[in-house]
């Protein structure tokens, strides 16, 4: 009887180990989950092919115009949130020139990539003063997109016009060109 009891205990123990050990034997891996966040930084850049330029008058009489200088701006943004037709590039001067108007004319935007573009805010030349004036607007957002991706180049031609007869000399001021997303 001792042998039968011992045998039954061994069978019961083997059965118990079988039931407990079977799931462990079938599970040959363990999975751990992670929450993963991918963050994209805001991109907002405007660069120019020149940092300074000179505009020169051929004479000094009122109504005279300088030569022109075309500056090519490279613009990139991944958050152009404004609507089409809204200002995207503004320009202003730190101070006005004495008896001289600074003027800008936007050329044709060249798209490198993205889902929106820029276009001239005004036809022809626009006068730049000490407060922001829109020279280019967001334009041509691809249908069915959010229109937030801008990447391309935009030429802007500058000239100065004498508003009175001018005395000899040079006037130096800063021209600020701003790419805005709102």
Q: What does it look like?
A:
This protein is mainly beta and 182 residues long. It has a single domain, classed as Sandwich (Immunoglobulin-like), CATH 2.60.40. Helices cover 14% and strands 36% of the residues. The protein has 1 helix and 10 strands. The protein has one helix at residues 2-26; strands spanning 44-48, 69-77, 87-93, 100-106, 110-114, 117-120, 126-128, 133-139, 150-162, 175-179. Strands 1, 2, 4, 5, 7 and 9 form a 6-stranded antiparallel β-sheet that branches.
Please bin the fraction of helical residues.
10-25%
Biggest pleated-sheet summary: 6 strands, antiparallel
What is the alpha-carbon Rg in Å? 35 Å
How many DSSP H or I helices?
1
Measured between the Cα atoms of the first and last residue, the distance is: 92 Å
In the predicted model, the low-confidence regions spanning at least 5 consecutive residues are none
Which fold does the CATH topology refer to? Immunoglobulin-like
Give the class from helix and strand content and strand pairing.
Answer: mainly beta
Q: What general form does the structure show? A: elongated
- Total strand segments: 10
Q: Report the order of strands and helices.
A: HEEEEEEEEEE
Strand content: 35-45%
Overall pLDDT confidence:
91
Architecture, according to CATH? Sandwich
The CATH class name reads Mainly Beta
Keywords:
182 residues; mainly beta; Immunoglobulin-like; six-stranded antiparallel sheet; elongated
How does the SSE layout of this entry go?
Blueprint: H1 2-26, E1 44-48, E2 69-77, E3 87-93, E4 100-106, E5 110-114, E6 117-120, E7 126-128, E8 133-139, E9 150-162, E10 175-179
Antiparallel strand pairs: 1-2, 2-9, 3-8, 3-10, 4-7, 4-9, 5-9, 6-8
């Amino acid at each position: 009887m001792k042998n039968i009891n011992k045998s039954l205990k061994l069978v019961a123990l083997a059965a118990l180990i079988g039931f407990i050990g079977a799931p462990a034997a079938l599970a040959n891996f363990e999975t751990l989950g992670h929450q993963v966040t991918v963050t994209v930084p805001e991109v907002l850049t405007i660069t120019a092919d020149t940092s300074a330029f000179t505009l020169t008058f051929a004479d000094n009489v009122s109504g005279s115009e300088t030569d022109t200088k075309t500056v090519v701006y490279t613009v990139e943004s991944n958050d152009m949130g404004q609507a089409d037709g809204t200002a995207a590039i503004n320009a202003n001067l730190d101070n006005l020139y004495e008896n001289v108007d600074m003027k800008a004319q936007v050329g044709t935007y060249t798209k490198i990539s993205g889902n929106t573009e820029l276009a001239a805010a005004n036809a022809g030349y626009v006068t730049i003063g000490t407060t922001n004036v829109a020279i280019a607007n967001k334009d041509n957002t691809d249908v069915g997109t959010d229109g937030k991706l801008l990447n391309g180049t935009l030429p802007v031609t500058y000239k100065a016009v004498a508003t009175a007869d001018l005395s000899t000399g040079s006037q130096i001021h800063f021209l600020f060109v701003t790419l805005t997303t709102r």
